[in-house]
Amino acid sequence: MTTMTAEATAQAVGLESVTKTYGAVRALDGITWSFPRGGFTAVMGPSGSGKSTFLHCASGLDRPTAGTVRIGGTDIGRLGEARRTRLRRERIGFVFQAFNLIPSMDVEQNITLPLRLGGIEADPAWLREIVARVGLADRLRHRPSELSGGQQQRAAVARALVTRPDVVFADEPTGALDPRTARDVLRLLREAADLTGQTIVLVTHDPAAAAWADSVLFLRAGRIVDELAAPSAAAVAARWDSL
Ligand SMILES: Nc1ncnc2c1ncn2[C@@H]1O[C@H](COP(=O)(O)OP(=O)(O)OP(=O)(O)O)[C@@H](O)[C@H]1O
Ligand SMILES: [Mg+2]
């Protein structure tokens, strides 16, 4: 019993036999995986292999067709909609592949939205720090339509980090960024794991981005087909080629 408790606390997010089907499409085909607390995991796989679906189910944004998802030991399938939303708001940060910024709000309002939804005042020092780290200090009054794709992506990253969530899921957060800004965002995620013990799950197509993680999961046709620990960009690229 002691080991079960230790396991539950060491695990930030756990999936057990998770399946997600859309009609005849099996987007996830029996995924069992446990993300360790404070770990930084990259998820790679061909387009359509189920990476976004995996993140949506693991974060409680979407309900699996079958299987169990636990966040911080709580089986979220057993929670009602209101409690699930609250747990997600308090413990999860999400960077969407399509950013999902609110067009009518400026950058600062977008970044602080998760706090306002939870009735929490933004800590000005923390807000200044993440805004500086994503390089948007001079864009706070701009609307998303007035930003470049990379700037929108960085605003989405800041929004995911502003609540200091236990787990940050990021779906290709560096896809639209130049190499230098991409490095800044990856460093931000790496520090979130190393300095504040946050759990990071990053979807990427870029072996160099995956190399920032502690381990890389490879998805194919809705299944985890491989894992690579302590990845180097070269090792990730080689493993990718052999998939
Ligand atoms: N809402 C949906 N309705 C129907 N099918 C869907 C839906 N969402 C995803 N799918 C299907 O599920 C499979 C996995 O999609 P998913 O978006 O998870 O892939 P992905 O690995 O994130 O791809 P990409 O790298 O292109 O973002 C695909 O075949 C996709 O067409
Ligand atoms: Mg995707």
Automatic annotation (TrEMBL):
<dbReference type="InterPro" id="IPR027417">
    <property type="entry name" value="P-loop_NTPase"/>
</dbReference>
<keyword id="KW-0547">Nucleotide-binding</keyword>
<dbReference type="InterPro" id="IPR017871">
    <property type="entry name" value="ABC_transporter-like_CS"/>
</dbReference>
<feature type="domain" description="ABC transporter">
    <location>
        <begin position="13"/>
        <end position="240"/>
    </location>
</feature>
<dbReference type="GO" id="GO:0005524">
    <property type="term" value="F:ATP binding"/>
</dbReference>
<dbReference type="InterPro" id="IPR003593">
    <property type="entry name" value="AAA+_ATPase"/>
</dbReference>
<dbReference type="InterPro" id="IPR003439">
    <property type="entry name" value="ABC_transporter-like_ATP-bd"/>
</dbReference>
<dbReference type="InterPro" id="IPR015854">
    <property type="entry name" value="ABC_transpr_LolD-like"/>
</dbReference>
<keyword id="KW-0067">ATP-binding</keyword>
<dbReference type="InterPro" id="IPR017911">
    <property type="entry name" value="MacB-like_ATP-bd"/>
</dbReference>
<dbReference type="Pfam" id="PF00005">
    <property type="entry name" value="ABC_tran"/>
</dbReference>
<keyword id="KW-0813">Transport</keyword>
<protein>
    <submittedName>
        <fullName>ABC transporter ATP-binding protein</fullName>
    </submittedName>
</protein>
